[in-house]
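Key result, reporting period 2: structure in, sequence out.
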């Protein structure tokens, strides 16, 4: 091989090119992304992470309105856990502008969710839930009868229960209160809030 691309055989050219590509591309991507020249979707696809801005006060005190947070893109493999903070696309029955929402997972498929016990706590599968992230006096500003979360769906609520429009409100208004797991677009790392 006398230089890059000037080689004695096609097989050597591929090897030489791949070797150069592996050495140079990470630096080029890092440099270009620092200059914001690479479109955000490509960076998201490469890193598996996305940024989201909290659009309201519904997640206070965990997230303030305007906070920018990072979330892992689930890519169709999300297995919901109670307590996860997620970004998701609301179901069509919820109306809205078509943007995403950020809420906390309260119930996963098969859970029975209700509110409230005598101490005003959320109840999952007959047991009260300790929610240290909620600063409201009650876990919900209205009560609701037990709801079984269907397969493939989740029950979500904001941490600021007095202002959050979430599964409780939509269920109460006669719409489907749960959200399809497939609508989850990011699992939020709240420690990245800024």
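The corresponding designed sequence is given below.
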């Amino acid at each position: 091989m006398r230089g890059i691309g000037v080689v004695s055989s096609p097989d050597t050219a591929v090897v030489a090119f791949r070797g150069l590509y592996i050495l140079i591309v990470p630096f080029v991507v890092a440099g270009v992304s620092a200059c914001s020249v690479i479109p955000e979707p490509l960076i998201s696809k490469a890193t598996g992470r996305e940024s989201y801005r909290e659009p309201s006060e519904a997640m206070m005190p965990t997230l303030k309105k305007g906070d920018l947070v990072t979330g892992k893109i689930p890519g169709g493999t999300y297995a919901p856990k109670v307590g996860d903070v997620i970004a998701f696309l609301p179901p069509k029955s919820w109306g809205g502008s078509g943007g995403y929402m950020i809420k906390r997972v309260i119930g996963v498929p098969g859970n029975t969710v209700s509110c409230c016990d005598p101490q005003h706590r959320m109840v999952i599968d007959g047991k009260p839930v300790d929610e240290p992230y909620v600063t409201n006096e009650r876990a919900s500003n209205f009560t609701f009868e037990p709801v079984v979360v269907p397969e493939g769906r989740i029950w979500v609520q904001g941490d600021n229960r007095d202002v959050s429009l979430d599964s409780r409100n939509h269920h109460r208004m006669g719409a489907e209160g749960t959200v399809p797991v497939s609508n989850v677009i990011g699992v939020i790392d709240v420690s990245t809030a800024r």
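Residues 10-38 form one domain. The longest helix spans residues 10-34. This case is discussed further under Risks and Mitigation.
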